[in-house]
């Protein structure tokens, strides 16, 4: 299983916002802390805002903060929202390819179970679980306490 960069950035943004305890953060600030693209992160912030995970404050002095408590944001939920296609192989896609063994394929069932197990593990964790060690994270991302 491999997550897209989009999901990675969404999780990183949420982690940053969960450990920033003193006010709002900007997309530029988060991008700089992680050394990632501000343009890509802007798109992520927009979608997370639409979905209620992030609250956006416009205008001078504006920025971002979590839209819900970190303990209420499930990792499986985030991945399901940010991954456009969880199909591990082409035959999982809505438009199936022509596979010679599709009618009796056991691999498809095995891969479905593996994908379900992956998401089940993520469902067991929240954003709060990822940021329990706030101080080391704050230090690494140069966030003042």
Question: What's the total number of strands?
Answer: 2
Element pattern in H and E: HHHEEHHHH
Distance between the termini: 35 Å
Task: Tell me the strand order in the biggest sheet.
Answer: 1-2
Query: What would CATH call the homologous superfamily of the domain at 5-85 and 126-140?
Result: Winged helix-like DNA-binding domain superfamily/Winged helix DNA-binding domain
Principal-axis shape: elongated
Helicity level = 40-55%
CATH-derived topology of the domain at 5-85 and 126-140: Arc Repressor Mutant, subunit A
Class computed from helices, strands and strand pairing: mainly alpha
Mean pLDDT: 89
Query: Low-confidence parts lasting 5 or more residues at pLDDT below 50?
Result: none
Instruction: Write down the Rg.
Output: 18 Å
CATH architecture of the domain at 5-85 and 126-140: Orthogonal Bundle
Task: Walk me through the structure.
The protein has 145 residues and is mainly alpha-helical. It has a domain at 5-85 and 126-140: Arc Repressor Mutant, subunit A (Orthogonal Bundle), CATH 1.10.10.10. Helices cover 50% and strands 6% of the residues. The protein is built from seven helices and two strands. The protein has helices spanning 5-19, 27-34, 38-50, 75-82, 107-123, 127-130, 134-140, and strands spanning 54-57, 63-66. It has a two-stranded antiparallel ribbon with strand order 1-2. It is elongated.
């Amino acid at each position: 299983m491999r997550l897209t960069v989009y999901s990675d950035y969404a999780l990183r943004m949420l982690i940053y916002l969960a450990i920033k305890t003193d006010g709002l953060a900007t997309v530029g600030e988060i991008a700089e802390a992680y050394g990632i693209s501000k343009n890509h992160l802007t798109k992520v912030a927009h979608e997370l805002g639409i979905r209620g995970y992030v609250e956006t404050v416009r205008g001078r002095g504006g920025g971002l903060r979590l839209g819900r408590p970190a303990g209420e944001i499930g990792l499986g939920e985030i991945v399901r929202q940010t991954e456009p296609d969880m199909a591990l192989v082409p035959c999982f896609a809505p438009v199936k390819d022509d596979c010679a063994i599709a009618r009796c394929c056991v691999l498809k069932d095995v891969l479905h179970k593996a994908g379900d197990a992956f998401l089940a593990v993520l469902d067991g964790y929240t954003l709060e679980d990822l940021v329990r060690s706030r101080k080391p994270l704050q230090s690494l991302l140069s966030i003042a306490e």
